[in-house]
Amino acid sequence: MAAAGTCGTGTRSTGSMVAAASTNNVTSFQRRGPRASGADSGCSRLVSIAGTRPSVRNGQLLVSTGLPALDQLLGGGLAVGTVLLIEEDKYNIYSPLLFKYFLAEGIVSGHALLVASAKEDPADILQKLPAPLIDDSYKKECDEDVCSHKMEPDIKMKIAWRYQLLPKMEAGPVSSSRFGHYYDISKRIPQELIETSKWHGFFLPEKISSAFNVESCSLTPGYMKLLQFIQNIIYKEGFDGSNPQKKQKNILRIGIQNLGSPLWGDDICCTENCDTSHSLTKFLYILRGLLRTSLSACIITMPTHLIQNKAVIARVTNLSDTVVGLESFIGSEKETNPLYKDYHGLIHIRQIPRLNNLIYDISDVKDLAFKLKKKLFTIECKQVHGL
């Protein structure tokens, strides 16, 4: 049954949310007590959730970002209870693709969705999600791309771009039980998948009225309403990790688009010495506290290139668990550089989470480029030979 966009009013105050964020510093998917045995084991229940798998490094429960190559770069996927921050490219052309991949993966995996935007109606966003590809179609697409590269006369250049991040595929139909899928951006997701999914929409213009007031030195109205909405869904729908669900466990995927932009009522991108910089960082602090105690994962796209205050960017990065930046070649010198002629931009893995630690990891993989083809968004690795 399709779920229409719902409105959560949230009965808990901002103070209670701050308290939850400060007192709960462990993720919900970590075992809190002695290991149980039999079918009632919490570990076994978590592993049985469709579209998830435990990390081979630390056992943390992971979900796919919807882009298997990105999952590989992040250590296997996105940890449940964490925030993935996507630094938008200059013209916001490619970051919406990662946002849509994340949501499409949720629908195919049977996860619940919470889509928040100040620019576009969440119902319209879902209608534009890419269609899942069966594996043999993906393999055919990759084979055609490799053949086209072999035909180029300058393939023996010293700087070679290799497809290290493209895993081997086995032919078969799309399955919700597998981890990570591939998507055809030239087609839209089938309507029946959207109708059978459970989702909640937050469209800021419909939630904020001119008469809405908040306390001084608090969050902006948009951030306050969104936190209340998220908190309401987490607790009422049973995604709160501290209150085990009676029904079968599931994952809540949260997608927040263009956070920090003026559309959210935040002037952080308009002036260097803005009065609401604390609103954005406070929002992220409270949000991360909510995620840490719930079976949820969040992706946020943010126009960080518009934020003039570098100290704010540093705080935003520290309050995020995983940070991925997109650098488009449009309008830059690299656009005419022959070394980059087959690619549309670079992708920077700025931060990988090390949960329950004071420090974070930095990816060892550098020089990553992305390409937007007719059907696929691919990430490829550059290697230098003989230089």
Automatic annotation (TrEMBL):
Stated name of the protein: Elongator complex protein 4
Keywords: Cytoplasm, Nucleus, tRNA processing
InterPro entries found in the cross-reference section: Elongator_complex_protein_4, P-loop_NTPase
Family designation: Belongs to the ELP4 family.
GO biological process: tRNA wobble uridine modification
CC annotations in GO: cytoplasm; elongator holoenzyme complex; transcription elongation factor complex
Pfam families: PAXNEB (PF05625)
Compartmental location: Cytoplasm; Nucleus
SUBUNIT field: Component of the elongator complex which consists of ELP1, ELP2, ELP3, ELP4, ELP5 and ELP6.
Coiled coil: none
Lineage, broadest ranks: Eukaryota, Metazoa, Chordata, Craniata, Vertebrata
Source organism superkingdom: Eukaryota
Main location, first listed in the record: cytoplasm
Native species: Bos mutus grunniens
Cited function: Component of the elongator complex which is required for multiple tRNA modifications, including mcm5U (5-methoxycarbonylmethyl uridine), mcm5s2U (5-methoxycarbonylmethyl-2-thiouridine), and ncm5U (5-carbamoylmethyl uridine). The elongator complex catalyzes the formation of carboxymethyluridine in the wobble base at position 34 in tRNAs.
Pathway(s) of this molecule: tRNA modification; 5-methoxycarbonylmethyl-2-thiouridine-tRNA biosynthesis
